[in-house]
Design brief:
Mean pLDDT: 93
Distance between the termini: 44 Å
Number of domains: 1
CATH superfamily: Nucleoside Triphosphate Pyrophosphohydrolase
CATH architecture: Alpha-Beta Complex
Order of helices and strands: EEHEEEEHEHEEEHH
Structural class: alpha+beta
Shape: globular
Radius of gyration: 17 Å
Amino acid sequence: MEKIKIFDLEGNFLDIQDRESFYEEIRNEFKRTNKITRKIESVRVLLMNSQGRIYLQKRSNTKKENPGLYDKTIGGHISSSETKTVTVTKECAEELGFPATVLSDQEFKDSVKNLDLSVVGVLRQIDESQNFLSVRKTEGGEFIQPFITYFYVGYFNGSIKFKDGESSGLETFSLNELENQLTKYPEKFTSDLKYMVEHYKRYLIPLGD
């Protein structure tokens, strides 16, 4: 069972808990009080190819949360035994089947010019939020979950083999295509993705721009 670190809304560490039991507790809390008073750490990633086409995950209709919606490329919880960097690289390998490395800003800028991006993906952290609010749509209605979240962008040109059986796979969009779709059909996209496009679109560009 995956263990995760639990924090209060001020960011104070509370305990280490099994992920499934934590989610059962916060869903029940939201039903009772319409709010959640604890949070966990997570990563959220938007991945592109060098032409600036953004890989979006299409969530399966069988997902408990946000079924059938287009979402960020990768999202993951940080387990109690891992760092945010380990989580991002592991998620790339486990969910998308490619090796990736997380670099500093300067290393990232140098690497995207010199590395063979068909062999390895490069990512960098662009922001963090100590109180990111994620809207989760379920059969029983919406609930809003607070997270400590680290946001990443990256590039990879190689083959991607989506391994999450609960997702329909990946589709690519240019930033212009994505913004048009978000305007016309906002109901097809998760709140996480809308937030990331709104706040970080300056990073969602082809290499060389």
